[in-house]
From TrEMBL:
One Pfam match: ABC_tran
Organism: Pseudosporangium ferrugineum
Single GO term (MF): ATP binding
Residue span(s) of domain ABC transporter: 4-238
UniProt name for this protein: Zinc transport system ATP-binding protein
Amino acid composition bias (Basic and acidic residues), ranges on this chain: 232-243
Protein family (similarity comment): Belongs to the ABC transporter superfamily.
SUPFAM superfamilies membership: P-loop containing nucleoside triphosphate hydrolases
Keywords: ATP-binding, Nucleotide-binding, Transport
Span list, region Disordered: 223-243
Length: 260
């Protein structure tokens, strides 16, 4: 069974089409990376899968159920792009991670030993158990990102969806991420992540999908990096001109047709 099956999806913002004819399958237990240049539609694709953006056409199934009838959202953990875990809120690392249990336990039932254990296990997974009582604001950016991954892991999801989890994150945190995701995968978890650069995540990836201008331009093994743009340290924050963009996208459509 597929954790996620997208068929001929189209998405528009205020009448402007940003995704067209997107077909994508994330098999149970697979690790799938969505790659592509800034503005190509990667975040829109995963936000549509999560039901945060409406479909203008096509269909999405989640764990075999049409998205509009899907209710088991606790099976999905989501780490949005660049969301600060601190944000001026004086919460501790443990409290932020415990909030990832709410969908599992219901807001009005006090935390049980199982909830506390899930929080500790998730923090252990990302290497931050020793910071459980510290205010999130005292953590580095990379550690805050790891806290958000731990929050998603604490809900014991079957599918983890991550939008650029390692963007702008220090090397130690990237390694800690990769290790946590590898363990999640070993436990049978499914991962769908958006990335500009895979870095230490690359060995985990079963399938890469390249989005270019709202379409799937490539699907297959992780493509070779194109020039310095795909190398480490290149922070993809600026929009690229069209010719350069197609180089970054590494869309070897001559090797494998997308969605044949
Ligand atoms: N809420 C929104 N309203 C209107 N347009 C949007 C909205 N979100 C994204 N867009 C537009 O849709 C297109 C795809 O954006 P999206 O964020 O999905 O791309 P992306 O590949 O994730 O880019 P990035 O790597 O910069 O996050 C872009 O042209 C963007 O400007």
């Amino acid at each position: 069974m597929s954790a996620v099956a997208v068929r001929h999806a189209a998405v528009a913002y205020a009448g402007r089409t940003v995704l067209r004819d997107v077909t994508l399958d994330v098999g149970d237990g697979q690790v799938v990376a969505v790659l592509g240049a800034n503005g190509s539609g990667k975040s829109t694709l995963i936000r549509t899968i999560l039901g945060l953006v409406p479909l203008a056409g096509g269909e999405i199934d989640l764990f075999g159920t049409p998205q509009r009838r899907f209710r088991e959202w606790a099976r999905i953990g989501y780490v949005p792009q660049r969301m600060g875990a601190g944000g001026g809120v004086p919460a501790t690392v443990g409290e932020v991670v415990a909030s990832g249990r709410l969908a599992r336990r219901g807001i009005f039932r006090p935390a049980r030993a199982a909830d506390r254990e899930a929080v500790r296990a998730a923090l252990e997974d990302v290497g931050l158990l020793d910071r459980i009582g510290d205010p999130v604001a005292t953590l580095s950016g990379g550690q805050q990102q790891r806290t958000l991954i731990a929050r998603a892991l604490a809900g014991r999801p079957d599918l983890l969806v991550l939008d650029e989890p390692t963007a702008g994150v220090d090397a130690a945190s990237q390694e800690a991420f990769a290790a946590a995701l590898a363990r999640f995968g070993e436990r049978g978890g499914t991962i769908l992540l958006v990335a500009h650069e895979l870095g230490p995540l690359e060995p985990l990836i079963d399938k890469a999908v390249v989005v270019h201008d709202g379409r799937i331009a490539y699907e297959g093994a992780v493509p070779e990096p194109a020039g310095h743009h795909a190398g480490p340290g290149h922070d993809h924050v600026h929009p690229h001109a069209e010719p350069e963009r197609s180089r970054i996208c590494v869309a070897p459509t001559d090797r494998m047709p997308a969605n044949p």
